[in-house]
Amino acid sequence: MTGFEREELILKYLSNSATTKELDVLSDWILVEGNEKVFEKYIQLHLEIISSMNSPDTNKIKKNLLRKIKRDKIRRKFRGFMKYAAVGLLIFYFAFFFQYDGSLTKGTNSLIPKEEAITIILDDGRVQTLQADDNREIKDKKGNIIGTQTNSKLSYIGKTEDQKLIYNTLNIPYGKKFDVVLSDGTHVYLNSGTTLRYPITFIPGESRKVFLTGEAYFDVAEDKEHPFVVNANEIDIEVLGTKFNVSHYPEDTNINTVLVEGAVELRRAASEPHKSKTIMLKPGHKGEWHRNSNEITTNNVDTSIYTAWVQGKLVFRNTSFKQIREALQRHYNVVINNKDSQLEEQLFDATFDIETIDQVLETFNKSWAIEYAIIENEVVIK
Fold first, then answer.
1. How far is 178 from 339, CA to CA, in rounded Å?
2. Which of 100, 174, 190, 280 could bridge to 194 as Cys pair (CB 3.0-4.6 Å)?
3. At what angle do helices 3-14 and 20-30 cross, to 10 degrees?
4. C-alpha to C-alpha distance for 22 and 7, rounded to whole angstroms
5. Side-chain-side CA neighbours of residue 326 (13 Å)
6. Tens-place pLDDT, residues 125-158
7. Is the pTM of the predicted complex or chain greater than 0.90?
8. 179, 152 in Cβ contact below 8 A?
């Protein structure tokens, strides 16, 4: 790239007129050793020009410029303690114009996530607490063993004297995850803030139906004679044997089903299923039911983004801060109050893995100039 081409490309970037292809070229150039400093000098010059006009609010310029860089998605990985975050957004510290000194969070205390217990409601209404490091037996009201817990996984043995469906309900609080293996061998991974109601054993001749609120990844045992159905309130997802993710939190406006493997059928939940319109999903596709329009749309997606939580990762691509904030609240079991209404709709790309909630907040503060304080163990974004 010649000097003239480089300057033209940077000017296009600063004027928000660069194309996606041009941004990719600029991103690759910046990642070459030594070029980042050159780019910073252009940014400094740009800021000097802004600063000389009408005595602007420098704090506001800082915030807007960082958000502009974020939205243009110029990519780079963090180093040091953030090297695993791979937030995917280029961060610049403009020493000429400003320096981060921690003043936004100085004097605040670290967040202390709430600790809540995983509970199981048995068929007779008894509520038992499950600890993730327990090894125990689960018994019905007659004292019969119906399942066993090994650490964070509960497995049902599939034996019962009753010829009717008997249900248990697992409640997973914010900040926790848990697995359950149903009596047919179906493995269900339950995310934070999730409730699953399911039979302790499935009965021959009946469909295998469970009821979900929250998010879960299903690895369904194949049984051609007995379809497996996940009810997510307004939607039924029916399969024979497959792997898919369902997200159905009360605060979400949509219900999402992402198919990893096999085939699933989506339909409106109804008393007469055969009268409901159905949509078939193919692997690598997401089916999304929109509450407002009462319609289901489908599109091709990267399924790994939607299933990363099973490995303990949080992955966001072109995601609003509102959705990120809600996911962080569930994942860490903290309260995040955002008083910046414009920020709620801002779109971000980010990936978090081993970070604590404090490190995540510091990343947002340093990377995107998002001001926050910790007040009475709650995050307040200004």
1. 33
2. 190
3. 120
4. 12
5. 15
6. 999 999 989 999 999 888 889 999 999 999 998 8
7. no
8. yes
Q: Are residues 239 and 329 in the same domain?
A: no
User: Taking the C-alpha atoms of 176, 137, 157 and 202 in order, what is their torsion angle to the nearest 10 degrees?
Assistant: -70
Look up residue 369 and give its amino acid: A
State the pLDDT at residue 95: 33
Cα–Cα dist 51/47, whole Å? 6
Q: Which domain holds residue 332?
A: 75-112+319-382
Cα separation, 333 vs 76, whole angstroms: 29
> Does residue 185 form part of some domain?
yes
Q: State how far the Cα of 238 lies from the Cα of 276, in Å rounded to an integer.
A: 13
Shared domain for 344 and 379, answered yes or no, is yes
The rounded Cα 364 to chain-centroid distance in angstroms is: 16
Asked if residue 122 and residue 230 are part of one domain, the reply reads yes
Cα 177 from Cα 152, distance rounded (Å): 8
First to last CA, the chain: 42
Range name among 63-72, 100-109, 179-188, 315-324 with the lowest pLDDT average: 100-109
CA distance 88 to 269: 39
169 and 273 fall within a common domain? yes
Q: Which of these, 296, 227, 292, 214, lies nearest to 263 by C-alpha position?
A: 227
Whether the CB-CB separation of 291 and 298 falls below 8 Å is answered with: no
Among 202, 212, 133, CA closest to 169: 212
Same domain, 261 and 292: yes
Q: Let me know: does 147 contact 155? Beta carbons within 8 Å.
A: yes
Which CATH number is 220's domain given? 2.60.120.1440
Give CA–CA dist 3/35, Å, rounded: 12
The per-residue pLDDT of the chain, averaged, comes to 82
